[in-house]
From TrEMBL:
A GO molecular function held by the record: para-aminobenzoyl-glutamate hydrolase activity
Gene3D superfamilies: 3.30.70.360, Zn peptidases
CDD domains xref list: M20_ACY1L2-like
GO terms of biological process kind: folic acid catabolic process
Protein name (record): Peptidase M20 domain-containing protein 2
Residue ranges the record marks as coiled coil: none
SUPFAM superfamilies listed in its UniProt record: Bacterial exopeptidase dimerisation domain, Zn-dependent exopeptidases
Lineage: Bacteria, Bacillati, Actinomycetota, Actinomycetes, Mycobacteriales
Ranges of residues in domain Peptidase M20 dimerisation: 216-308
Originating species: Corynebacterium hindlerae
Amino acid sequence: MSEYQPSTEPVPPYAGYPQQLAKATAQLKESSAFSVEKREGAAPELMDALESKIDELSETIVGMSHFLHENPEVGFEEFKAQAKFKEYLEAHGLDVELGVYDVETSFESKISNGSGPTIAILSEYDALPNIGHACGHCVMGATGLGAYLALAKLVRENPDAFQGTVKFIGTPAEEGTSGKAVMIRGGAFKPEDMDAVLALHSYGYDLADQVWLGRRTLTVHFKGVPAHASSQPWMGRNALDAAALTYQGLAVLRQQIPPVDRIHAIITEGGTRQSIITEDSTMKFYVRSKYPDTLKDLSERVENVVKGAALMTGCGVEIAWDESPATLPVRTNNELVSRWVAAQRRRGRDPLPLGVVSETLAASTDFGNVSYRIPGIHPLIKVSPEDVALHTREMAEAAGSPAGDQAAIDGAFGLAAVALDFLNDEELRKAVSEEFEAAGGFIDAEEFLKN
């Protein structure tokens, strides 16, 4: 008998690969810098006044972040957060509409000053089950609020600060349930309603841009024929076998997909008794890819694996895509992100360009769907040490720390500054639009992935 006995505890993952990635990132940081496009933007005195407003609002910004951090709510249940945003907005004399675009915990407010372009600033504020704000949405919620309030104060004191409209939109349920995509179904983010959209994300680095993968959900139900597993197994058709073959088929498929693509699957139903050939099995998948067209291709390949398993086992199969709406990768508008970098350098930060942090450290966000409808940015702001990952208790702790507080203030200025530049610089607006069209223009995620 072997002397080796497995432990009751799992073997800790080897940290060598993330350590090597960290070394490579550190080396690239030394030689990489984002090249900021020279633009006229807002007048220097306007930017000074805006920064002063942000500093005046610092207590409000940090207060909002702390409230969210201390009252975490999962997607579509963010009623305390929604009420707190309403409280702050109304305290500053701003109207707010709750439950917009068919999402009960969303909201929208706007300030208009004459005719001109419209730019939207977004806030996320949902948390994760059990581990709270482990994606830093408390910081992100506060940045949007601070940016919007600062612009409102600025234009009240100086009606010449900008011409146009700023919208502040609360976007719930980013985590796993694609709240922005649900809002799109309800009429949000129409290109005719706005010219640019700004959002950001918490992270362990200051990044001008980073890869965000498109993501689709898939639910598969295999229908078999039950039989006695011992006396007449040949009279059955085993739905668990179909699920097992699918799982193994995905493992083989991974050898022939691009390195950044991802497939995750679980078996949520796999039988009731060992003595019965399994009649029903259910699987749930995430399918992720770097580009809209490769997401579509990978989806087809995954579906073929499912169909093959059904054929091999003689089981029936039901395939349901995107019960939670699909999300596209993020399309970053470099003209806008250049203004973000300029604003963050003013605050003592220096966001790194795309490619410094490995694209293998990629997640997904429903902002991707917005970014293919309207020009936008989704940079990342440092709230934690570099070795702290998203969706961990360590990230939740960092989001509520002094580093998270400072990120909320600096991020609020960054979003407000980009908006102010956009509203004041016609050439910038033209360049933003031209870049968006050159990148492929408008794409509706659901229509694109339908066929």
